[in-house]
Amino acid sequence: MLLALFMLPVGLMAADIDIDQLTLDMDRFEQQGLAQYAPNAFQQARTLLARARSDGDASHGMDLIEKAREKFEEAKSTADTFRSRYASLLDLRHDLSQALAALPERTRSPDDIVSLHQLQAESELHRAIQFMEEGKLNISGQAARKAEMHYRRAIENLLPELADAAKRTLSRAAFQGAKRYALHTYAMAKAKLQELLDFIAHRSPQLPSRPADAIRLAERAERLAREVRVLRRDQASFESVFEQQRQFRLKIAEMIGMDIDKRDPLADIPEEKIFSGIRDLKRQIEQERIARERAIRRLAKKHQEEIEAMRQQWLAASSQELAGLKEAFRAKLERETFESKRLKRLREIFGKEEAEVYANIDGSILIRLKGLKFPSGSSRISSQYNDLMKDLKEALEVYGERSVRIEGHTDNRGDLKMNQQLSLKRAEAVRDALIRAGIDGSRLRALGYGEVRPIASNEFAKGREMNRRIDIVIEAPKK
Q1: What pLDDT, on a 0 to 100 scale, did the predictor assign at position 242?
Q2: This prediction's pTM
Q3: Which H helix or E strand runs over 186?
C-alpha cells in the first residue's frame, strides 16, 4: 500500500512527460510532410495517444502510450521505405510543383493536359501509398509507375512554357548586367535553359531534372545584378558576399531545426522566418520548462500530503495492525525466497549457449533462446533443437501457474510486413512444439514483432544475428 501511494503520482507524471514528447515527435513528423506516406498507421498512433491522454489509469495509460509509440515507429518505417523505394517518383512530383509555381500567371482550362496528368498522377500516388501500407507491394509498385509516367508527361507538356519564361527572364537579367554582376548564376540559368531546349528539340532524351530552376536561377541573376549595380563601387565580389550570407542563413536555420531542401541550389530561408523560428523555439522551451516546474511542484505537494497522511495512519495504528504488517512482511520474505530459488532452478536448466535468463523489475522473466536458429525465410524448427525444446518445457513447468508470451523478432533486412509475418510464424512454431510436448496451450500466446524491437544495431552482421531471436516471457504473477 505504501509503495503504491508513492508510485502512483510518479507514474502519472511519467505518462504526462511521455505523451508530451511523443506528441512533439508526431507534430514534427506531420509538419515535415512525412505523415502523408503512412496515413493509416499515423492516424492510429494519434488515436492511441489521444486515448492515453484521456485515460485516468496510469498503468493502462502507459500501455496505450507504448502502443502509440509502436504504431508511430511503424508509420516512420513505412514512410522511410516508401520515400526510399520511390525517390524518383517523389522527385518528379516536386519538380512539377516547382514548375507550376514558377509560372503563376499561367492560365489553366478544364481540359488542360498538364492539369489532367497532374490529377491522375496524384490519384495513382495515393493508391501506391495505400497499397504499401496494406503490404500489397506489387500493386503499389504498379500504381507508382503509373504516377511517375503521368508526372513525367505533365512536365514534358510544361517545358515549352518554362523555356519561354526562362528566355524572357534571362533577357531581363542580361539587361540589368547579370553577365557581369552575377556571372555564375547567369551561366547556371543559361545551362539549365539549354537542357530544356535540348529536350524539346529532341537533342537529348533525358528529361531535365528541376526544370523550374531555369527560371528561378534567371530571376536570381536578375535580382543580384540589380543589387550589385546599386553597390557597384564596392570592390568585393558581390555574388560571393550574397552567397556567404545565404549559407549563413541556412546554417542558422539548420541549427534551429528548420526544414531545408538540400537538393535545391537556391535554397534560402528569409531572415524574418529565422527570427520567427528562434522565437518559436524559445517560446517552446520556456513553455516546457514552466510545465515541468508545475508538474514537479504538484508532485512535491502531493507527496507531502501523502507523507502526512501516512504519518497519521502510523500514529493511529493499533498493535494488531502492526502485527499484521509484521506477518505480511514475513510472508513477503518467504515469497521472495521461494521466487529466488525458482529463478536459480530456471537458470540451471539451460546450458550457456542455449539461452539467457533475465529477471525483470515487474516480476516477469525473459528467456532469450539464443541457441535456437531458423533457416532464412523459414519457420520450421529443426530436430537438432529437440533437447533445447525439452529444456524449455521443463523451464515453463517450473512456473506452471503463469502465462507465457512467445515473441518472434527479425532483423531489418527485407520487407517490414513480411518480417512481421515471419516472426509470428516462428513464434507460433515454438508454441505448437511446446503444446505437442504437453504444455497447456491456454497458457501460451505467440506474438510477432518483426524488426521493430531490435536489441542491437542492424548495421553489422553480428547485430542482425542478435536481432533474429525468439524471446520467451514468463509473465509476472497476477496481483
Answers
A1: 77
A2: 0.50
A3: helix 183-200
